[in-house]
Design goal:
The complex is a heterodimer of chains A (204) and B (472).
Chain A: E1 8-15, H1 23-26, H2 46-54, E2 71-73, H3 86-92, E3 100-103, H4 108-116, E4 121-123, H5 126-138, E5 143-147, E6 152-155, E7 158-161, H6 166-174, H7 179-185, H8 187-196
Parallel strand pairs in A: 1-2, 2-3, 3-4
Antiparallel strand pairs in A: 1-5, 5-6, 6-7
Chain B: H1 5-13, E1 14-17, E2 23-26, E3 29-33, H2 38-47, E4 57-60, H3 77-93, E5 96-97, H4 108-114, E6 123-126, E7 140-143, H5 146-155, E8 157-160, E9 164-171, H6 180-191, E10 199-204, H7 206-210, H8 213-221, E11 230-233, H9 237-243, H10 253-265, E12 275-280, E13 287-289, E14 297-299, H11 315-325, E15 340-343, H12 345-348, H13 351-364, E16 373-376, H14 381-389, H15 392-398, E17 402-403, E18 424-427, E19 443-446, H16 449-458, H17 464-467
The chains are: A alpha/beta (204), B alpha/beta (472).
Bound molecules: iron/sulfur cluster (SF4).
The site of iron/sulfur cluster has 13 residues of chain B, from helix 12.
Chain lengths: 204, 472
Amino acid sequence: MQDVKRTVITGKAISLDGNDIDTDRIIPARFLRCVTFDDLGAHAFEDDRKQLAEKGKRHAFDDPSRQEARVLVVDRNFGCGSSREHAPQALMRWNKGIAAIIGESYAEIFFGNCVALGVPCLTATHDAIQELKKELASDPALEISVDLERKEARAGKVRAALSMPEGARKQLLTGRWDSSTELLEGKAAIASTAKALPYFGHWH
Amino acid sequence: MGKSLYDKVFEKHAVRQLQEGQYQLLMGLHLIHEVTSPQAFSMLRERGLTVPYPERTFATCDHIIPTKSQLRPFQDELAEQMLVELEKNCAQYGIRYLSPKKGEQGIVHVVGPELGLTQPGTTVCCGDSHTSTHGAFGAIAFGIGTTQVRDVLATQTLAMDKLKVRRIEVNGKLRPGVYAKDVVLYVIQQLGVQGGMGYAYEFGGTVFDAFTMEERMTVCNMSIEGGARCGYVNPDATTYAYLKDREYSPKGAAWEQAVKYWDSMRSDADAAYDHIVQYRAQDIEPMVTWGITPAQSTAVNAKLPQASSFAEGDRPLIEEAYQYMGFTPGAALAGQKIDVAFIGSCTNGRFSDFEEVVKHLKASGKKVKPGVRALVVPGSQKVRERMIEAGFDKVFTEAGFEFREAGCSMCLAMNPDKLVGRELCASSSNRNFKGRQGSPTGRTLLMSPVMVAAAAISGGVADAREVFAIKS
Ligand code: SF4
């Protein structure tokens, strides 16, 4: 069985510039016409990529030297917009799969979706992110380590302090990010909470 | 210190605290649609889980349904496959499916309230971010991801952190021609798209007291665009009058009992809030977005802001927005030519939204400017039916609008209704993200339905107060 504990994630990195990158940009809505998540990876950032290509520029996700990246570095309010899990699913399924994200901040639902899928989203200060990005830009082969235990990212000569809400961090460290097992254990308590609510029974 | 409605609802629905500090929260109502549920059902099957409270989940089809004709099978095979999957899942697990064939279909956030499913003092969730809409009834309502949809199906609960509560008060009297949509665009402009992170928004003050339920829904709908996970208005007589006699509203003695419960869940007069902001109604003008986030908006007659008027960290996004939209700082948005006008969505696709537009179309006798593609898309089949009964379909078609079947339509263009190329669309929906309306380069201007109609008539962005002679 696959190890579900998320302690240190090490891999090559890919960076994106810009605040408020929304879920429609991560995976354009037309690709949501599907009944499984399987094929989403290839379409991550498709429209952004195309538009840059038309202008003769290149999106990071099209950079041949970044195709093996497993750690994504972003700016502020990443993943805003929709609650659809298609966005983290697309990132998880892009090439080798994004396994950790570092950014200034995240939209709440996106953050929660990522945790529920076992993909840690950690935050760092604006300056730390810029420093990390600079270091990572210098060498595509450079590996970054995202250490959940020590709350630290290490890449080349850069060390950046990371933070994450404790509850989510512990869930990932202990491998208890898959919520359903723990939720299912509460069966009796669920029934009694429901019973105490004046409205719960009236649709029976 | 007293408690807010948020605190009370949270306490009543908290099953227990989980090992890592989150709470297991019971969900009173679970709504599902075709886009975010199929994978959740697959996960249930993979794990051999059952659905213990199927009567607490309701399903509709909204995102992918075509609005020209709902005849099956749909031309789009993928869309057809998604709907078949939803029907199959509902049948297998005993979930009530609001069928288009029975006239029950509509946007999930329109049909829930319509049926009386959304009730005060409850928790509501759906795999859709605009679930915040249901907060208009004094429910704690929020969007969830597909993995959580699985959890709710399997346990009727979710793992959640407790939010902080910000009370947003708007007091005074809105000026004529200023609508709920303008209020929420204004609030988001003031607080930013991230301003609500970690918060539930409680909307209060005389403006909300005076609002109808549909106006409250418009505001709560867009709480999420301000970064707040949920937004709500305390229930009152307006709420109860709306709910009375709806299909799923409590009846008879149960009604009296429910009202007692609902009253008890209102925020206490001395409730503690983490933050309070206050705005004056008379400061709010008809609003239009000019950029690529819902916070990038301006009063319709104002000049577009200079990048230098924003904090340094925000400037790159402001510049990106100007570049994408093709607008210039310092210029006016009024007069900017539009190609498409869209009235609909879970923000502004309810009966009263269309009623207000019809009132002005009738009084002015004005017509859509030739060359503008103008769509009217009811939020549900019931809304559509009422519109036809009231003769709105004729008013709209005679004025040059297309009158369509119910669905999300051009709000996010997962069905055939899409912008083409760089088309500019005046839209009553809630998101102006790049490519949101179906063309990767398409451009969206968010505004109220009456402002959309004014733009359709003028062929460009216009102050509806001038177009329809609304006296201020
Ligand atoms: S109308 Fe738009 S925002 Fe509302 S549910 Fe449909 S797609 Fe989402």
